[in-house]
Amino acid sequence: MAVESIQNIFRVPELKRRLLYTLALLAVYRVGAHIPTPGINGEALAEFIARTQGTIFGFFDMFSGGALGQMTIFALGIMPYISSSIILDLLSVVFPTLAKLKKEGEQGRKKLNQYARYGTVVLSVVQALGISIGLEKMVSPGGVPVVPFPGWSFRLLTILTLTTGTVFIMWLGEQITERGIGNGISLIIFAGIVTGLPRAVGNTLSLIRTGEMAPLLMLVLLAMMVVVVGAIVVMESGHRKIPIQSAKRVVGRRIYGGQSTYLPLKINTSGVIPPIFASSIIAFPATITQFVDHPWISFISNSLAPGGLLYTILTVVLIFFFAYFYTAIIFNPDDVADNLKKSGGFVPGIRPGKNTSQFVDRTLSRLTFTGAIYLSVIVILPTYLIQYMKVPFYFGGTALLIVVGVAMDTMQQVESHLVMRNYEGFLKRGRLRGRRG
């Protein structure tokens, strides 16, 4: 069945073209991720980066597919664009002009995307300057400087190189979204994360051959991974459907309206943002210790080591905080209630207006609580597997969420193309539901 569905993809000319176009641009991205930035001693940098596991460097290196660790032209990855988009979401709460643009449909979305591009350039310049200054201070354990010839010439060249690389990645993502299949930005992150999968599988097989890992333990881990992936699929596609009834209107001798529909509320409305923010904040002290040798900072960094009680508590607290915070930013129950009232819709048994807003807000708060528990378990579980079972668990919780979520969205788009052209999709019964409601 799966083989036939894959064959159907290549029977649809447009879908085939979009898929090959997407793969070609992703290949361009992976080639660029191996072109080094000029003026850097690669061997000295590799020795220094080897000590940064558990820091912000190691965290963002995962999203760049190893480009940051090798300091290639794509070292900044797509994170400046993501950060710029998140900042715009936050500012829309403060500035009414941005909030108005979000409600203006396609034209407003284009303007916000343009602002996000400008913000990406600004953030890339600032981050590239910080990285260039940090590189000049880095020295390998053998005493070899990472930057043989420091100075403003190196800094300006690094700023130009890394900023151009990020802008080019952003352009690749937009081209994939427009002319390819799937969300381009998400697929670029996906490609960066899964790049290290073959190496991780090879290391695991080597451990089994040498007897350092029992085959039974590996089978248990595979079973757990299947269960975790299944849980992510269920939770990311899960919705709470609030029934909506439209009021009947009599026009002449005809009766309009009276139809029933529903308002889908996602279980995990905030997506992968809470784990990313929580992991970045917790990794910050470990990053500071790479440059500042102070007893208090070292004590805080050691206390927040993955697998510890303080690390677990703080991770869960931050995930809950950002889950509620980001959900409150991107979803406004008052706007939902007003739109329903203007269109003549209502929730059965609930009065339109303020009561509807309170009902939606109460339902969303319960869903967010459930979603935050789910995110906490997914993020914490791999940490304890690594810490106490001594296994090379490649995907961290955040990476696993991204990989599964992007795969679901991409399969949903492929499924839509096949069904639209009367071809059978990946699922014989029903349709694959994506993460977006």
From TrEMBL:
Quaternary structure annotation from Swiss-Prot or TrEMBL: Component of the Sec protein translocase complex. Heterotrimer consisting of SecY, SecE and SecG subunits. The heterotrimers can form oligomers, although 1 heterotrimer is thought to be able to translocate proteins. Interacts with the ribosome. Interacts with SecDF, and other proteins may be involved. Interacts with SecA.
Functional description taken from the UniProt entry: The central subunit of the protein translocation channel SecYEG. Consists of two halves formed by TMs 1-5 and 6-10. These two domains form a lateral gate at the front which open onto the bilayer between TMs 2 and 7, and are clamped together by SecE at the back. The channel is closed by both a pore ring composed of hydrophobic SecY resides and a short helix (helix 2A) on the extracellular side of the membrane which forms a plug. The plug probably moves laterally to allow the channel to open. The ring and the pore may move independently.
PROSITE patterns xrefs: SECY_2 (PS00756)
Key word Transport present: yes
Stretches that traverse the bilayer: 71-95, 115-134, 154-173, 180-201, 213-235, 271-288, 308-331, 367-386, 392-411
Topology of the protein relative to the lipid bilayer: Multi-pass membrane protein
Main location class: membrane
GO biological process, any: intracellular protein transmembrane transport
Gene3D superfamilies xref list: SecY subunit domain
Protein name: Protein translocase subunit SecY
Gene it is expressed from: secY
Source organism, top-level taxon: Bacteria
Pfam families: SecY
Record family assignment: Belongs to the SecY/SEC61-alpha family.
